[in-house]
From TrEMBL:
Stored SUPFAM superfamilies: ABC transporter transmembrane region, P-loop containing nucleoside triphosphate hydrolases
Protein name: ABC transporter ATP-binding protein
Membrane topology: Multi-pass membrane protein
GO molecular function: ATP binding
SMART domains reported for this sequence: AAA (SM00382)
Classification via InterPro entries: AAA+_ATPase, ABC1_TM_dom, ABC1_TM_sf, ABC_transporter-like_ATP-bd, ABC_transporter-like_CS, P-loop_NTPase, Type_1_exporter
Domain called ABC transmembrane type-1: residue spans: 41-334
Domain of life per record: Bacteria
Regions crossing the membrane: 43-68, 95-115, 166-189, 195-215, 281-299
Domain ABC transporter, first and last residues per copy: 371-586
Pfam families, sorted: ABC_tran (PF00005)
Main location group: membrane
Nucleotide-binding listed as a keyword: yes
Amino acid sequence: MPFLRNPTTAPAADGPTGSLVADGKALVGDFVRYGGRRLGAALALMLAGGILEGVGLALLVPIFSLLAPQTGGRWRAMIVDTLSSVGLVTRLEQLAAVLLAFCLLVGVRAAVLSARDRLVSDLSLGFVDHRRLMVVTDLAHARWSSLARLRHARIAHILSSEITRLAFACSVLLQMMTASIMLVTQAILMILLSPVVAVLMIGFALLGLVVLVPLSRRAADVGRSTARFAFRIAGETAHFLGGLKIAVAHDMADAFVAQIGEEGTQLRAQLTLQQRFQSRVAIVSASIASLAGAMMIFGAVLFDIPTVTLLAALVVLVRMSGPVRSLQQSVQQLFGVMPAFTALHDLKVDLGPPVAITSGAGAQSVRHGTIRFDRITFRYPDASAAVFTGLDLAIGAGELVGLSGPSGTGKTSFVDLLTGLLEPSEGRIMIGDAVLGPATLASWRRRLAYVAQDSYLINDSIRRNLTWGSDVRPDPDLWQALAQAGAADMVGAMPQGLDTPMDDRGTRLSGGERQRIALARALLRDPQLLILDEATNAIDIATEQAVIANVRRALPEATILIIAHREETLRACDRVIMLETTQTTIS
Ligand SMILES: Nc1ncnc2c1ncn2[C@@H]1O[C@H](COP(=O)(O)OP(=O)(O)OP(=O)(O)O)[C@@H](O)[C@H]1O
């Protein structure tokens, strides 16, 4: 599994502002930076598709002229002359040649559009992956104090729903680019066919803008509030089970169902309103388009425009309705999905600057030695009281130390300071003769192993779980570590042994079984400091005592810190640090 080292450096100030235009610009900017040359190639293919579409439509003129000679006007003479000069004399030969050219063109256009769609899909999926990795990298490198303030539900929502909505925003943006290029090429063709018809068309396009923009804006407002509503429901759905549990326990199940039903009704009403606005926009667009068609026919008669030109122009007009509709719908859809982009940006702002870790030449190695808390004061940002004030203590290399105390006295904070997740507000932590800080953090973290109460297992085999975070090791080493953690019999009894998959992160194992696998994994890191954070509390006392003795034998030189409440566990330690109040005392 690759470890991410470099947080993203995109400046937060370039991010969304809440206005569609500014947010759209920021999203496009991000997308352009990501797409680079491939986006250029996609745009070139879009342009080629547009031009081929224009040429294909232009070929309708000779086809119509040859089909209905009396309607051709000056076009027909020109076309017949050109084809005759290359040896195609009869009407049938000329028609066959033009139709062949048309078919070839349709084939080439289909190939270009298929290449365009492949590239566009690659780009949009790749961009979403890239943004997801950016978020995960930012989270992985954020200061722990910033991270601890975030709600889990918010992160889960961003990494699942919001990223998916961003994928949709990308495809909408790309649709808009394609539609715009199509429209421009079709408009140019219209001008070439007949400037008079083009002027009429532009007049109607402007009329359409004047009528449709306010209507679309109102439809977009409705779309935006629908998105907010759906977002709120999604948030509540995430806490559904918790809410249901309390409701059932309080005999409020029917009220809970009614509450969920009411939210559904409100969302439906909102969606109906949105649909109504979209229908209104569609009715007005269709009316303007049909009026434009009628006026074009009228204008053609008035200005004596050949029927062939008129027919071709009408086909172009019909073809233009697709990109126009696509553009208009895309703008509305962007309103709905843009909050996803804003949410990603807000998360980056809330995470603040990444934690400083020196790598390369500036990095220092730490050597095994006494761990010393030297006049440590620690206060969480925004907290009124400090967790530790002027804490002085030392843990000798190779000591087995217990850490205990009532809830809220700072055990987790102590461990987080020791692993460098939190930085002291005052004072310093020494590892041997090195100060724990940006230069020594990477080296120190490579030398420690941390096992939590709720063990993190990945959805993979036991073998991969054991070597997660350390080098690949031969099977005998893995079995030895499992035996030391008291898990060898358990894994040996599984039909696939080390290759047994840990489905659903090992939830089918008991808490104690998961803890023993996590402990074996920690032993395989051969750490200088082993932290067991309530990591054996789900194991029965007799097995736990045996496991602690095994661990000590397996790591004779390592310092071991056990956070525990059980007296039996603490009795196995050389000494115990007891956190009694926020002003720590040590016994
Ligand atoms: N992110 C945070 N922001 C502000 N205060 C915090 C934060 N995390 C913990 N605290 C406070 O710091 C104090 C120490 O918390 P800590 O989690 O270290 O205690 P603990 O001994 O590990 O508790 P427990 O045994 O319940 O896990 C508590 O008063 C807690 O409310």
